[in-house]
Amino acid sequence: MTIRKIRELLDAEVLFGEELMDLDVEFAFSSDMMSDVLAYADEQSVLITGLCNPQVVRTAEMLDIACIIFVRGKSPDEHILHLAMDKNIVILTTAHHMFTTCGILYSNGLLGGA
Predict the structure, then answer these.
(1) Is 48 helix (H, G, I), strand (E, B) or coil?
(2) Under-70 pLDDT residues of the chain
(3) Core-most of 2, 11, 68, 72, by most CB within 10 Å?
């Protein structure tokens, strides 16, 4: 599934990475615990989280995660956005809660990782 399709399904706002919307991802992983992301997420996944701090981007970088989706309307600060820009990681934000976000993506064919 492309990040563009994910953005459309979630009615998400693109905070960074408009030029990367055609990247394909196969899996999604959702967690607010970055230790779980490190232990269980697949590379080239989408990370769905409500945690809004720089560690999210650093964790995503370690796993070559292509896109971070912040749920519940959370919006990362400039520091987090600059980290994502430096690492070329797409940043989306959606008003949906994590459970709903995962359900929408799963029902449209995006699989869970691990």
Answers:
(1) strand
(2) 113-114
(3) 68
